[in-house]
Design a protein that fits this description.
The complex is a heterodimer of chains A (311) and B (642).
Chain A: H1 2-18, E1 20-25, H2 35-42, H3 45-48, E2 51-55, H4 64-69, E3 75-79, H5 80-88, E4 94-98, E5 105-109, E6 123-127, H6 132-141, E7 147-151, H7 156-159, E8 165-169, H8 173-179, E9 189-191, E10 202-206, H9 208-213, H10 215-234, H11 236-249, H12 256-270, H13 284-294, H14 306-309
Parallel strand pairs in A: 1-2, 1-3, 6-7, 6-8
Antiparallel strand pairs in A: 3-10, 4-10, 5-8, 5-9
Helix pairs in contact in A: 2-10, 2-11, 10-11, 11-12
Chain B: H1 9-79, H2 87-97, E1 101-108, E2 121-127, E3 130-136, H3 147-155, E4 159-160, E5 164-166, E6 172-182, E7 188-197, H4 199-206, E8 215-219, E9 225-227, H5 239-246, H6 249-259, E10 264-270, E11 273-282, E12 287-294, H7 295-298, H8 300-331, H9 333-346, H10 362-408, E13 422-429, E14 437-444, E15 447-455, H11 459-476, H12 483-497, E16 504-512, E17 517-523, E18 529-531, E19 537-539, E20 544-545, E21 559-562, E22 567-572, H13 574-577, H14 588-598, H15 604-619, E23 628-635
Parallel strand pairs in B: 17-20
Antiparallel strand pairs in B: 1-2, 1-7, 2-3, 4-6, 5-6, 6-7, 8-9, 8-12, 10-11, 11-12, 13-23, 14-15, 15-16, 16-17, 17-21, 18-19, 18-22, 22-23
Helix pairs in contact in B: 1-8, 5-6, 9-10, 11-12
Chain lengths: 311, 642
């Protein structure tokens, strides 16, 4: 009996010693957008990989890249355009997992919009975490004569008519507009993917240095996260319950109807050309297409190699 | 459909009364319920809206005091812009002097003070009953991107922010009033804010309960629940998300009305419960205030009143039925007694005692009528008895007279004279017991004397004259051999004794059976038919004389014809041809002739019977209205002398 107790104590001791601490920072506060990571954590997938994952949410004005840069976080999520922009600007970033293969960005307006040309001189609200660099890239690439208005989030700035147009995601703010009683006419919205801006979005990123030092850890994190996402896809209601627990723990103001819709849309965005099995890696085609759509022909960003960006 | 069968008058009347009462009551209840429901709903609308308006005004007034406080500080702020580090004093004073304000700030535009950082925001806030201050702004608190700063800046006007939870300040729900500050050139240089806690308002709204089980909600500009009895909805759900989740179009309509700042009342299905929502807006801030109340609660008084009325009615109806039944039963007891009495009276007990009636109502009148009827019936029956006795006696006498009269007529059988050269048959059917028709015959040597007649009128007078005429004929024939002389004598006798102006039609004839000579004297009588052996049927057209009993000296004429053997003489009275059917049509000579034609070869007996059958068929059971007599004489073979 004494040996059994000793064995258990030693096992727990070495397990704790072995579990590697990882601080993971998603792009936003707790919501269904990150259901796969919550599931992997809750179901012990990370633990099974020997990881001790802690989720650190960014402050409302913070960009996850800032946390990665200053070492407060080890692994973050970012949209591909942001990541490429940081990379082109000398940023230290590696894409280790691609969760979203479709673009969710939509421009909604108080007046009809059919194409980018009608945006001339318009005030367009965009998220604060988007860097000036990427905004200028888009502006110059698509020859947009617009005024970017940065805001922290939500839809109040648009609903109050302080801006003419607002950039929203199909899984979050777009639904929120309906939930605030805004009637979205098809004539008053423009999907960026329909205008050629069909960049994949969310991916998981680490710094090159961290990856070199912790390749196994990162691979384990990716492996467990994929398991988490696959489980979510098969168990949506249970996944929503896990998300809801996380939301309550972080005291985020939202509701289940919104989160359910968000999860459905997030899972849709993950499904690249109905691939089976699901792809959680950014492929070369997507990468090259993103560069073409984001950078001018002679821009520095065009020199970024797939192998240097994707692991 | 089966009709209800009631065994008693009392049950029927009681059921009718109660059914009628139920119908009237139901109609009254429907009208009462409809009218009262409308009144109660109107009252609820008026009452609840009054409370909501008061509440909205109260909230608006308090918000106005905050706006006024900030606006009133504008000039002081502008006076002290040169001393940025002392601005906190203005803010501290503002917070200290306004209970609602829990924090106030002046957030300057980027690089407004070159000596300061890009961000410069002075903030005074309430903490543990003290007002403290600090400088905010930076990458971690990038206020340029925050709603309270950016929206009023872009709009260029005051702005109440959407309510939010202040995580750092004690988990309070707050809203911020933002007031843009412009320099003398109209350029915005800062946003002046006042943060207020919504606790005060939400508590007020939560306690707004016009009806038991009702609850109030406060919605933000974009439909977020700021108060709700389900705490998990507050700041998490909007009225639209609830509508979208449940798929309730009603709720969505309500949400749009409320968010549009309308005032109104809508009846809707609230999670399966029929409810009312009363709503109004809080102008200025764009909020909406509503109270949701189950319809049952509003109409509870009406329901309980209606329920009590119905219960009382049911009890009343039962009592009414029982009492009505008993009263009617009691009232109709005399009727039952009358029924017994009537039954006894109808059984012949005219002296049966009638039930005693003490009241002076219709029953008393009925009693009087019954008593009078009883007396009348007794009297009538007594008279009827006497009359019946008289009638019986008369009938008896008439029967005797009938027998006597019939006895005066020859026996009804075929008569064969002198070796059957003549056969005859006759029938007489008086319309009454005795009649005025007559026939007779007499045989003298080879001659057959016969007579047929009809005394005018019917009954006893006619029968007496018939008897006289008959006996006179038989008395005259042995000594007077000519028919015209016989008729003359009969006329003379009739005129002598005729004080009543009764006349008689008759035919007197004599058939010489040896020669076939037939002599007839017709005194106003129907012309006889002659059915010849050759098959020809004709009327014997001898001279017509007037009936006897009119002119004493009238000279009656006779005529003679000669008939062949096998010929039948058919004589009859007008009772034959004037017999009527149901539609008062006469039998007539034509129809008689047709019957004779069909039966011309028959014996007198069969011939007369054929006519009788034809008449019976024609009259179809109707009583004869006149005496009927037929006499048929068949002249057959040669006569052998005795």
């Amino acid at each position: 009996m004494r040996y059994h107790v000793l064995s258990i104590v030693l096992l727990l001791f070495f397990e704790n010693i072995a579990a590697q601490k990882i601080i993971f920072t998603p792009q936003w506060t707790a919501q269904s957008q990150f259901a796969g990571y919550y599931a992997a954590l809750k179901l012990g997938y990370y633990k099974e990989e020997g990881l001790d994952v802690e989720i650190l949410y960014p402050a409302i004005s913070e960009n996850p890249y800032q946390l990665l840069e200053n070492g407060k976080s080890n692994i973050i999520t970012l949209n591909l355009d942001q990541a490429l922009a940081y990379k082109a600007n000398g940023g230290d970033l590696l894409n280790v997992m691609q969760t979203s293969h479709l673009n969710s960005l939509i421009l909604v307006s108080h007046t009809p919009i059919k194409e980018f040309s009608v945006l001339k001189k318009k005030k367009i609200a965009v998220w604060n975490y988007l860097s000036d660099y990427i905004l200028e890239l888009i502006k110059s690439k698509y020859n947009l004569d617009v005024q970017w208005i940065k805001f922290n989030g939500g839809v109040n700035i648009f609903l109050s008519k302080a801006v003419d147009v607002c950039l929203v995601s199909s899984f979050n703010e777009f639904n929120k507009l309906s939930e605030c009683g805004f009637d979205i006419s098809k004539n008053n919205m423009l999907k960026l993917s329909d205008c050629g801006y069909d960049l994949p979005e969310e991916g998981v990123y680490v710094s090159e240095k961290y990856y070199e030092d912790n390749k196994v850890l990162v691979d384990s994190f990716v492996k467990a996260s994929i398991r988490g996402w696959l489980w979510v896809r098969q168990n949506r209601e249970e996944a929503l319950a896990i998300v809801w627990d996380e939301i309550k723990r972080n005291k985020v103001a939202t509701n289940k109807y919104h989160e359910r819709n968000m999860l459905d849309e997030i899972l849709r965005l993950q499904n690249y050309k109905n691939s089976n099995p699901l792809q959680f890696k950014l492929n070369v085609k997507e990468f090259e297409n993103a560069k073409m759509k984001l950078f001018m022909p002679k821009a520095i960003g065009m020199a970024i190699k797939y192998g240097e960006f994707v692991k | 459909m089966t009709r209800l069968k009631f065994k008693s008058f009392a049950t029927r009347l009681s059921v009718y009364t109660i059914v009628f009462t139920i119908i009237i009551f139901t109609l009254i209840m429907v009208i009462f319920y409809t009218y009262s429901r409308e009144r109660m709903i109107k009252h609820a609308v008026s009452h609840t809206h009054s409370l909501l308006n008061n509440m909205a005004t109260q909230i608006e007034n308090k918000l106005n005091t905050v706006e006024d406080a900030v606006v009133n500080c504008e000039w002081i702020v502008k006076e002290n812009l040169s001393k940025p580090d002392s601005l906190y004093r203005i803010l501290t004073s503002l917070v200290e002097t306004n209970d609602l304000i829990v924090g106030s700030s002046i957030a300057f535009e980027s690089d407004y003070y070159p000596e300061k950082d890009k961000y410069f925001m002075v903030y005074a806030f309430r903490e543990n009953d003290n007002v403290k201050h600090k400088i905010l702004g930076g990458k971690e608190y990038d206020y340029f991107c925050m709603d309270w700063y950016q929206i009023p800046k872009l709009l260029g006007k005051n702005y109440w922010s959407e309510p939010y939870y202040d995580r750092g300040g004690g988990n309070m729900m707050m809203t911020t009033f933002s007031y843009p500050l412009f320099d003398r050139h109209g350029k915005l240089f800062a946003i002046f804010t006042a943060d207020i806690s919504l606790e005060h308002f939400t508590t007020l709204v939560e306690h707004l309960e016009p009806y038991k089980s009702s609850y109030s909600v406060l919605l933000s500009r974009y439909g977020y629940y700021l108060t709700h009895y389900k705490k998990e909805k507050i700041m998490n759900e909007t009225i639209f998300s609830e509508a979208l989740e449940t798929g309730s179009v009603e709720t969505e309509d309500i949400a749009r009305n409320m968010i549009s700042g309308h005032t109104g009342t809508i009846r809707f299905n609230n999670e399966g419960e029929d409810s009312f929502i009363f709503y109004t807006s809080v102008p200025g801030v764009g909020w909406s205030l509503g109270n949701i109340c189950p319809a049952d609660v509003i109409l509870d008084d009406l329901y309980s009143t209606s329920r009590n009325i119905i219960i009382l009615f049911i009890i009343g109806a039962v009592l009414l039925f029982v009492s009505t039944f008993n009263v009617i039963k009691k009232l109709t007891v005399p009727l039952e007694n009358f029924t017994d009495s009537v039954r006894r009276i109808s059984a012949g007990d005219f002296n049966s005692e009638l039930p005693e009636i003490k009241s002076h109502d219709e029953m008393c009148t009925l009693y009087d009528s019954f008593a009078q009827m009883q007396v009348s019936l007794a009297k009538y029956m007594k008279e009827l008895k006497v009359t019946t006795q008289k009638k019986e006696r008369i009938e008896s006498e008439l029967n005797i007279a009938r027998k006597i009269q019939m006895g005066m007529l020859p026996v009804l059988s075929e008569e064969v004279i002198n070796g059957s050269s003549v056969s005859l048959y006759a029938v007489l059917q008086p319309a009454k017991e005795v009649g005025g028709d007559l026939y007779n015959y007499y045989i003298d040597n080879n001659k057959l004397y016969f007579i047929i007649g009809d005394v005018s009128g019917k009954g006893v007078p006619a029968s007496l004259l018939m008897a006289i005429t008959c006996s006179s004929f038989r008395m005259l024939v042995p000594r007077v051999h000519s028919p015209q002389e016989i008729v003359k004598d009969l006329n003379r006798m009739a005129c002598e004794s005729n004080k009543s102006n009764i006349f008689t039609t008759l035919v007197v004839g004599v058939l010489d059976t040896a020669t076939g000579e037939l002599t007839l004297c017709n005194a106003g009588h129907n012309k006889p038919f002659l059915l010849e052996s050759s098959g020809k049927i004709s009327v014997i057209s001898v001279q017509q004389n007037i009936p006897i009993g009119i002119f004493e000296d009238y000279d009656y004429k006779q005529e003679s014809i000669c008939i062949d053997r096998g010929t039948t003489i058919f004589l009859y009275t007008d009772g034959v041809t004037e017999a009527e059917n149901e539609i008062n049509q006469l039998y007539g000579e034509k129809r008689l002739k047709e019957v004779l034609e069909k039966n011309k070869n028959q014996s007198p007996y069969d011939l007369i019977n054929a006519v009788l059958i034809s008449l019976a068929y024609y009259k179809n059971g109707l009583e004869a209205n006149d005496d009927l007599t037929m006499l048929a004489i068949n002249y057959k073979n040669s006569i052998k002398n005795d």
